[in-house]
Prior knowledge:
The chain is α/β, with parallel strands linked by helices. The protein has 19 helices and 14 strands. Helices cover about 45% and strands about 15% of the residues.
Amino acid sequence: MEPVIETFESRKKHMCVKGEGLSIPVCDKASLPGTVTQRTCVFGGARIVLMPITDSIHLVHGPIGCAACTWDIRGSKSSREELYKKGCSTDLQEKDIVFGGEKKLFETVLELYNIYKPGAIFVYATCVSGVIGDDIKAVCKKSEDLTGCRVIPVQSEGFQDHNKTKGHWIGGDALLDYVIGTKEPEETTPFDINIVGEFNVAGDLWGIKPLLEEMGVNIISTISGDSHADEIAQAHRAKLNIVQCQKSSNYVARKMEKKYGIPFIKVNFFGLEQTTNSLREIADFFGDEEMIDRTEKIIERELMGVEDETQEYRERLEGKTVALYVGGNKAWSLVRAFEEVGMDVMMSGTKNGIKEDYERIKETVRDGTIIVDDANSTELARLLKKYKPNLLISGAKEKYISLKLGIPFCDFNHDRISAFAGFKGFVSFAKEVDASVSSPVFNLASKTLSKVSKTPKVGGDENAS
């Protein structure tokens, strides 16, 4: 069987075509040394789960580079404080590595508390603080006893695993161990929910929350977009958890079900069909006839407006192809949304996917779709040159590979500025996709953009030069 692209022998099984040979690609393995993976570390995985808590300080206990590299890593918006966007680091130096950084950490926590009086201080361990053995749990406990403020250790040393998914779990454990269940709500209703795994990237939450509130549900907390530590502390009293980003947050939902008996359902607010199904599933869970009736009226009203607003975009996008190279959740949750604007998903891949992610991708995409795991820059360029999609959906690290090949690009990662969730978000989604695909810039640009020189031939094993 012909390989998807020419690459190292050990990398060939990380790519497959649905309906041919491998059912899913080999995944969740350490990246091949020297191939310049696009992955993020465990520390980065924890940061993206916790950073959207807006009333909190996020303190990185490590060299300044760890904090600088992950500052505003989530692209989350806030309707309240901007405290979460403060870049805070203990800035460990050679002296701290030799003699230990615990004293410096303790003094930094006290200084930050005195300046900002935050709702919580999250202290992230990094590779360096882990290697030198700083006891951040003890420092956090001492600081919390002195200040009365939640000071929460996040044991997120980057070297723990090759996959940032473990960082998602570590961030979730920090909330489960130190925040959730530490405060009681002033009042409860029969329709209390938590939105789990919604990080308000570009304001996505604000396209979901009004729909849920109009249905009649009461949102105790969002974990963790546009949230406060005190709100998450009350999350244990919800009657239902709805899980949006299933890549990062199934773990938290399962743990809460085990610990507090809170059931959860998986939802998807990207695309019309998925948004509609999610709202109905929430209403059906509560079984309240008035809520079910209200939900149907909301859906009817919103769909009527969206159809008219997106017709022009659909006509131009019909039959165009798109390649997805995104996070594990988006690699399958966006597929139906693209089909709804008339596009064909010809490739779907992710950097940090686990078996569960690729099973979902396989269930969602059509036969003939390429499924890719942990493609490095060279592999991604070869995939784009060989299969020539009309659009690449990815993040900032892949943007310039696409543009230099003359392939339109749309950011669906943390750096985007347009909200795509919910019915109104779908209109923005269709508009932005159309603006990228239909832009005349690639007709005006030099044709040599896509005629890059051939890369050197790769041998059949890792020892090839």
